[in-house]
Amino acid sequence: MTASTAVLQRLRDRASALDAADPLAAYRAQFIGTEGTDGTDVVAYLDGNSLGRPLKASAERITRFVTESWGARLIRGWDEEWMALPLRIGDAIGEAALGAAPGQTFVGDSTTVILYKLIRAAIDARPGRREIVVDTDNFPTDRYLLQGIAQECGATLRWIESDTAAGVAPEQVSAVVGPQTALVVLSHVAYRSGFLADVPEITRIAHEVGALVLWDLCHSVGAVDIQLDAWGVDFAAGCSYKYLNGGPGAPAFGYVRAGLQASVRQPIWGWLGSSEPFQMGPDYEPADGIRRFISGTPAIVGMLAMQDMVALVAEAGIDAIRAKSVALTEFAIELTDAVLAEYGVTIASPRDAARRGSHVTLRHDGFRELTGRLWEQGVIPDFRAPNGLRIGLSPLSTSFTELFAGLDAVRTLLAEAHPAA
Ligand SMILES: Cc1ncc(COP(=O)(O)O)c(C=O)c1O
Question: pTM for the whole thing?
Answer without folding.
Answer: 0.97
